[in-house]
Automatic annotation (TrEMBL):
Topological category with respect to the lipid bilayer: Multi-pass membrane protein
Listed PANTHER family: MAJOR FACILITATOR SUPERFAMILY MULTIDRUG TRANSPORTER MFSC
Keywords assigned: Antibiotic resistance, Membrane, Transmembrane, Transmembrane helix, Transport
InterPro entries, per database record: MFS, MFS_dom, MFS_trans_sf
The organism's taxonomic lineage, starting at the top: Bacteria, Bacillati, Actinomycetota, Actinomycetes, Kitasatosporales
Keyword Glycoprotein tagged: no
Domain of life: Bacteria
Designated name of the protein: MFS transporter
Length: 475
C-alpha cells in the first residue's frame, strides 16, 4: 500500500488517467445517436430513403458489436494504450472518409471504420483501470466506473441534439468531420498522460504467471476464428433484418449454418470468444443481456424513428427535431445519475419498463398535427428508461458475472445493446419504407408497448435481482 488514506481515490485514478479515457469512451455512443437527426438530409443528398440510410446505423453497430469484445481481448494481449491510440487514429480516418465521401457507399465504409475505431476505447479503458488497480493494490473506485458509464450515456443522450445542430448549421458532413478534432484531442491526451503498456504488460504477465499454464493460455488467446464466425453470423443476420419489407429468406439458411458452426467452435476452443458454457450456467446474466437488448431496441426506435417522423411528417427541420429530442437527452442524463446512486437493481429496472411502456403509449396516439407538448412528453418518458436501464443493467452485470470475467461480461452487454440497435434499424426500414408516416410510427409504438410489458415481467420474475446492490468491483 502507498499510504493514501482509506476512502480517498488514489491519484492514479485522477484527471490525467481519466481525461483521455472518458473522452475516448464517449466517441462510440455519441456517434451511435448523433447521426439520427442527419439521416433525412443524407437521404435527400444521395436520393435514398430510410430503408437505405438504415445501413448507416446497422454498419456501425455491427462493427461495434464485434469490435468491443475483440478490442478487449487485444488490449489484454498487446496493451490498452496501444489499442486506445490505434482506435483514435481509426476514428480520425473514418471522420475524413465520411466528411469527403462523394458516394453513399463510402459513408457506410466510414461508419464501419468508425464502429471499429470507437469500439477500442471502452475495453481499453477497463483494461487500463485494471492495470492501475494491480499497480496500486487498490480496487478501482466505484465513482470511476460510474464516470465511464455516465460519459457514455450522456454523450449518447446529447447526440441527436448535437447532430441536428451540426446538420442545420454546417451540413450533415459536419456530423462525420467533428470526429477528427475529438479523436485528435483524445490521441494527444493518451500519448501524453496514459501510462506506457510495458509496465501494464509486466504487471499482467506477473499476475498470469501465478496461474496454471492453461489459464495463462486462455488469458492471452484471441480466438480469431471465433471472432470471424461471430462477425459472419451477425453480418448475414443484419442483411436479412435490413430488408424485412422484402425479406431475403435465402439468407436464413447460411445464418443458421454459421451460427451452428460458431457454437460448435466455441464449445471446442479452450479460450472461446463467447464463453457459452459460462452463459448456459448463468441464467441471470443471460436475462440481463436480454433485458438490455430489448430496452435499447425500443430506445433506438425512438431515437431514429421518432426523429425521422418529426422531420418528414410533422415538418420540423433537423435542428428543431433535435431540440424536441432534448428533453429525452436531459431526462436520460438525470436518471443515469440517480440510477448510479440507487442501491437496488430491481426498482430502477421496474420503473424503466413502466416508463418505456408509457412513452410508447404516447407515441401510439400522436399524429402529424399533435401539439408540441405531447411530443416533448413522449421524449421525456422514453428518456427515463434510457438512463435507469443503462446503470441498473450495468450493476446487474457486475453482480451476476464471474469474479474473473467482469470485463468480458461488460463487453457482451454492449454487444447486446448493439444487437438491439441493429434490430431497431431493420424495424424502422420495414415500418417506414421510403418515408416516415403516422401508421409506421404507431406500429413501432405498439411494439414498444408490448416489449415494455415483457420487460416488466422479466424484471419482476428474476430472482437474481433480489440480491440488491452489487459489491464494488475488484481487480
Amino acid at each position: 500500500m502507498d499510504g493514501t488514506p482509506a476512502g480517498v481515490p488514489h491519484r492514479a485514478f485522477g484527471a490525467r488517467l481519466m481525461t483521455p479515457l472518458l473522452l475516448g469512451s464517449l466517441l462510440n455512443p455519441i456517434n451511435s445517436t448523433m447521426i439520427a437527426t442527419a439521416l433525412v438530409a443524407i437521404g435527400q443528398d444521395f436520393r435514398v430513403g430510410p430503408a437505405d440510410t438504415a445501413w448507416l446505423l446497422s454498419a456501425m453497430y455491427l462493427a461495434s458489436a464485434v469490435g468491443q469484445p475483440s478490442m478487449g481481448r487485444l488490449a489484454d494481449r498487446v496493451g490498452p494504450r496501444r489499442v486506445f491510440v490505434a482506435g483514435a487514429l481509426m476514428v480520425c480516418a473514418a471522420g475524413l472518409i465520411g466528411a469527403l465521401a462523394p458516394v453513399f457507399t463510402l459513408l457506410i465504409v466510414s461508419r464501419v471504420v468508425l464502429g471499429i475505431g470507437t469500439a477500442a476505447a471502452y475495453p481499453a479503458a477497463m483494461a487500463m483501470l485494471r492495470a492501475e488497480s494491480r499497480r496500486t493494490g487498490r480496487p478501482t473506485p466505484r465513482a470511476v466506473l460510474g464516470r465511464l458509464s455516465l460519459a457514455a450515456l450522456a454523450s449518447a443522450a446529447v447526440g441527436p441534439t448535437l447532430g441536428g445542430l451540426l446538420a442545420a448549421t454546417a451540413g450533415w458532413r459536419a456530423v462525420f468531420a467533428v470526429n477528427v478534432p475529438l479523436a485528435l484531442l483524445a490521441l494527444v491526451f493518451a500519448l501524453v498522460w496514459l501510462p506506457r503498456d510495458e509496465k501494464s504488460t509486466r504487471d499482467a504477465n506477473a499476475a498470469r504467471d501465478e496461474r496454471s499454464g492453461r489459464d495463462s493460455a486462455r488469458a492471452g488467446a484471441l480466438d480469431p476464428l471465433g471472432i470471424a464466425l461471430f462477425a459472419a453470423t451477425l453480418t448475414t443476420t443484419m442483411f436479412f433484418l435490413n430488408d424485412l419489407a422484402d425479406p431475403r429468406w435465402f439468407l436464413l439458411a447460411p445464418a443458421a449454418v454459421l451460427a451452428a458452426v460458431l457454437v460448435w467452435w466455441q464449445l471446442r476452443h479452450p479460450a472461446p470468444f463467447l464463453d457459452l458454457r459460462m452463459l448456459a450456467a448463468n441464467g441471470g446474466l443471460v436475462r440481463t443481456y436480454l433485458r438490455h437488448g430489448l430496452t435499447y431496441l425500443v430506445i433506438y426506435c425512438a431515437l431514429y424513428g421518432f426523429s425521422q417522423w418529426l422531420e418528414q411528417v410533422h415538418g420540423y427541420s433537423s435542428f428543431h427535431a433535435g431540440l424536441i429530442m432534448l428533453p429525452m437527452s436531459g431526462v436520460a442524463a438525470f436518471c443515469s445519475i440517480a440510477g448510479a446512486r440507487t442501491k437496488g437493481i430491481r426498482a430502477p429496472l421496474t420503473l424503466a419498463a413502466l416508463c418505456l411502456a408509457a412513452g410508447s403509449a404516447v407515441l401510439l396516439v400522436v399524429h402529424g398535427t399533435s401539439p408540441l407538448l405531447a411530443l416533448l412528453c413522449a421524449g421525456a418518458l422514453l428518456g427515463i428508461p434510457q438512463g435507469l436501464a443503462s446503470t441498473a443493467n450495468q450493476a446487474a452485470v457486475y453482480a451476476q458475472a464471474p469474479a474473473d470475467g467482469v470485463g468480458a461480461a461488460a463487453g457482451l452487454q454492449r454487444t447486446a445493446q448493439y444487437l438491439g440497435a441493429i434490430t431497431a434499424s431493420g424495424l424502422i426500414g420495414v415500418l417506414y419504407g421510403q418515408r416516415a408516416s403516422d401508421p409506421g410510427l404507431h406500429h413501432m409504438a405498439a411494439i414498444g408497448l408490448g416489449l415494455g410489458a415483457l420487460l416488466l415481467a422479466l424484471t419482476l420474475t428474476d430472482r437474481t435481482l433480489r440480491a440488491g446492490s452489487p459489491a464494488a468491483a475488484t481487480n
